[in-house]
Amino acid sequence: QVDLVERGGGLVQPGGSLILSCEASGSIFSMNVMGWYRQAPGNERELVAAIFSHGGTNHADSVKGRFTISRDNVYNTVYLQMNSLKSEATAVYYCNFRDFQLNDYWGQGTQVTVSS
Q1: Which DSSP letter does residue 8 get?
Q2: What DSSP string describes 46-84?
Q3: Are 51 and 59 within 8 A, CB to CB?
């Protein structure tokens, strides 16, 4: 069992920046993937970015160059730095942890609203 605690989120103006963090605890083994997904009203949940335990990353095309995912393996924490935010980034952002057996764990979600 893995528990995820998300922090960050909130209201930000277009063009602004925001950082999300997610700390994992529980049965954490060395091989895993942590990532961020988002779901806007009426849309399916989509991958924003993911980072493997060895450091490899994957960012959705829509956020490349503006969002950066990183992680701290000592504290089992993943971060999502979001810059140059656009209104279409408004969504609930979910932290995901996938273990070496491909079990998925989800955070409770945090709202990000980009609006003036």
Answers
A1: -
A2: EEEEEEETTS-EEE-TTTTTTEEEEEETTTTEEEEEE-S
A3: no
Rounded distance, CA 51 to CA 58, Å?
6
**Contact by Cβ (8 Å): 71, 88:** no
pLDDT at 30 over 80: no
Element (H, E) at 96: strand 91-99
Neighbours of 8 (CB within 10 A): 16
Is the pLDDT assigned to residue 84 strictly greater than 90? yes
pLDDT digits (tens, 9 = 90+) for 34-48: 999 999 999 999 999
d(CA 88, CA 116): 13
Question: Under a CB-based contact definition with an 8 Å cutoff, are residues 36 and 69 in contact?
Answer: yes
What is the rounded distance in angstroms from the CA atom of residue 99 to the CA atom of residue 42?
29
